[in-house]
Amino acid sequence: MVTAAPPLVVAAPTKEPIRELTSYTLDLAYGDSENNFELTTTERLAPGSLIWMDGTAYGGIIDVVQTNQTPLLTYKGRTWTGILDTRVIEPPPGADHRTVEGPAHQILQHLLDEAGLSGLFTVASTFPPVTMPTFQFDRYTTLWEGLTKLLTVNIAKLSVQCVHDRIDLTVLVGARIRADGEHTRFTAARDYHPVNHLIALGKGELKDREVLHLYADADGGISRTQTLTGLDEVQAVYELSNADSTAELAAGAEKRLRELQSGRSAADIDLSDASAAVEVGDMVTASDPVTGLTTTVRVVKKIVKVNASGVLTVSADVGDPNKNTR
């Protein structure tokens, strides 16, 4: 999505606004990776200052000040999620893992308190509250990584909003969005004749070489029974001469045939004009009437850019659509 960039609020570490920037460039990303920003302006800003766009999730803390003997100054830092990504969830004394359950806003508040971030973030509850079943964090994971896993498995998301000089964090049920052609682009391809007959060659030489035949059916099921014949049959050869047993050869051949079958369909989703309306953690489903393919993907990153002309561009990245294409 492209629009005019709003002023950028500059605030003290206490979140008290100091000034607004109207002339700047910005490159900011947050989600499963990056979680940082680069800001360029002629204004002199103090390290440790907070920046944000009111009414959005876009903001963070200035960590680096860079000069290059021009009027422009470059500031680099962590986004709000980047700050969460520089705190670590530790197991309680005497325990192997940190385990949580209950209302998500209470879990989030406890984790922020332990991380020393409750002065920066305000936790907003929802009604009814989003409740998390028992969840075990990985040992010494970052707060952002841990929250991402916790929320993803429970089809939830962390909403961030900078409003009224607060940075509000809210755990919400992840939106399930049905993609439409007006705001998204969905491309799909289906291979109707992938390899479905794999001839596996094991140890031995010439006529003494071990040979095993594996077959895939129309639904991708694998067995020793052939169901696709004639022009529907597609053969390939798989060699595993160092297999120590028939079982090892069969396991390797089955793995290979599944890989070949996984290429039966491919899809790609470009959120296009819908990018500003989705958030990290949302699930997007798209369907194609021609191939009959349906895919569901998770929004994994938001990218925000403001150019020298003051134009704001928002885009979103999604996970691999081919993992959930059918």
Provide an overview of this structure.
This protein is mainly β and 326 residues long. The chain has 4 helices and 25 strands. It has helices spanning 80-84, 104-115, 143-153, 246-262; strands at residues 2-4, 8-11, 17-21, 25-31, 36-41, 50-52, 59-67, 73-79, 88-89, 99-103, 121-123, 131-136, 141-142, 156-163, 166-173, 176-178, 185-190, 197-201, 211-216, 222-223, 235-239, 265-270, 283-287, 294-306, 311-318. The strands form 6 sheets. Strands 1, 2, 3, 4, 5, 6, 7, 8, 16, 23, 24 and 25 form a 12-stranded mixed β-sheet that branches. Strands 20-19-18-21 form a 4-stranded mixed β-sheet, covered by helices on one side. Strand 23 (283-287) and strand 24 (294-306) form a beta hairpin. The longest helix has 17 residues, at 246-262. The chain is elongated. The mean pLDDT is 90.
How many helices? The count is 4
Number of strands: 25
Structural class: mainly beta
Shape, please? elongated
Q: Stretches where pLDDT falls below 50 for ≥5 residues?
A: none
- Averaged pLDDT, please? 90
Main sheet overview: 12 strands, mixed
Write a concise keyword list for the protein shown above.
326 residues, mainly beta, twelve-stranded mixed β-sheet, 25 strands, 14% helix, 42% strand, elongated
Helix and strand topology:
Elements: E1 2-4, E2 8-11, E3 17-21, E4 25-31, E5 36-41, E6 50-52, E7 59-67, E8 73-79, H1 80-84, E9 88-89, E10 99-103, H2 104-115, E11 121-123, E12 131-136, E13 141-142, H3 143-153, E14 156-163, E15 166-173, E16 176-178, E17 185-190, E18 197-201, E19 211-216, E20 222-223, E21 235-239, H4 246-262, E22 265-270, E23 283-287, E24 294-306, E25 311-318
Parallel strand pairs: 11-15, 16-23, 18-21
Antiparallel strand pairs: 1-25, 2-3, 2-6, 4-5, 4-24, 5-8, 6-7, 7-8, 9-13, 10-12, 14-15, 17-22, 18-19, 19-20, 23-24, 24-25
